Amino acid sequence: MRIVHTEASCGWGGQELRVLNEALGMARRGHQVRLAAPRQSRIYAEALKRGLPASAVPIERKTIAGYRALRSFLADEAVDIVNTHSSTDSWLTALACIGLRNAPAVVRTRHISAPIPSNMGTRWLYRRAAARIVTTGEALRLQVVRETAADPARVVSIPTGIDLAHFQAGDRLASRAALGLAADDFLVGIVATLRSWKGHRYLLDALAMIDDKHLKVVIVGAGPGETNLCRQAQELGIADRVIMAGQREDVVPWLQSFDTFVLPSYANEGVPQAIMQAMACGLPIITTNVGAIGEIARDGVTAMMVRPQDPEALAAAMVRLRDDAPLRERLGRAAIIEAQARFSADIMLTRMEAIFRDVMGKGTLVRAALEK
């Protein structure tokens, strides 16, 4: 199949990683795959660096220039499937395909659980313009059906898959030695873009409640919240217990160095890849039941669930896991078993491949949708 992934986002996080890894996986399966993204976006640069063909198209905003450029691109490429990923590129793609000769089928992937606008245009986009809608979790699938009145048969949940050969448990002390981390500290780690709704500030509030100089938080990631988090750590007097590791190309050594993994998100989540990765590395999880997190992290089985935006509950969970090594071991073992059974990238690719084959040749649905 000839597949194009569009991505308007200029940020970098789990969504962009899924787009890139899925595209590369489809290419390895013999499909012709290309990315269309803004030239200044990180995903564009990463695609080229990793050997994925990419075209620079100005789709970062909903503009006439972006619409024209995308329509010209699709007319020239002879595409079977366009898989859109953000709101802006989904709109531009749907409009660009109207009246296009041999229009490709449009598959809209929705990665987050933010509210969907309630208006006629959005209903058209979800109910008619896309041949299929894919979400990254069942909770998101139900949300799309509920908020857009899309046909439930056309909305399917396909969680992101990860490379289980790469994300594995390792030698904690060896990882710490390689990263320059103390062997005798209890490390609570988070791997996430520094966005407000990931809940980093509640994690720092929780850390300040724990009187233990050897319990430290490791923050892996970059983003717009970095300055505020550094300031907060200083104001709380815990800067010496917060390790800002920054953006890392390979997070596996960091995951392998942690004693436990935490993601205290309070909004917008789909199925976070970081939790899947941490589980595959055998880490006990502390997280919240937000978005579709509860579909992969099970309270008392692989994780400890706490209330969102609740530093006291976070602090209690961190202390409990610090003090209960058998509990950490039990949750970590169960996490590995769960990850190996459910989180393979091959499962994701096979299911996406089936969706693409099912809708291939149905691009005329977009034109018919507008006429209605």
What do these coordinates show?
- By secondary structure, this protein is α/β, with parallel strands linked by helices.
- Helix content is 44%, strand content 16%.
- The protein is built from 15 helices and 13 strands.
- The strands form two sheets. The chain has a seven-stranded parallel β-sheet with strand order 3-2-1-4-5-6-7, with helices on both faces. The protein has a six-stranded parallel β-sheet with strand order 10-9-8-11-12-13, with helices on both faces.
- β2, α2 (42-49) and β3 (54-56) form a beta-alpha-beta unit.
- The longest helix has 18 residues, at 325-342.
- The protein is elongated.
- The mean pLDDT is 95.
Q: What topology, given as strand order, has the largest sheet? A: 3-2-1-4-5-6-7
Main sheet overview: 7 strands, parallel
Oligomer state of the chains in this structure = single chain
Distance between the termini: 29 Å
Protein traits:
alpha/beta; 372 residues; seven-stranded parallel sheet; elongated
State the gist of this model:
This protein has 372 residues and is α/β, with parallel strands linked by helices. It has helices at 14-28, 42-49, 64-77, 87-97, 120-129, 138-148, 172-179, 200-208, 226-236, 252-257, 273-280, 311-323, 325-342, 345-359, 364-371, and strands at residues 2-6, 32-37, 54-56, 81-84, 105-110, 132-135, 155-157, 186-191, 215-220, 242-246, 260-263, 285-287, 303-305. Strands 3-2-1-4-5-6-7 form a 7-stranded parallel sheet, sandwiched between helices.
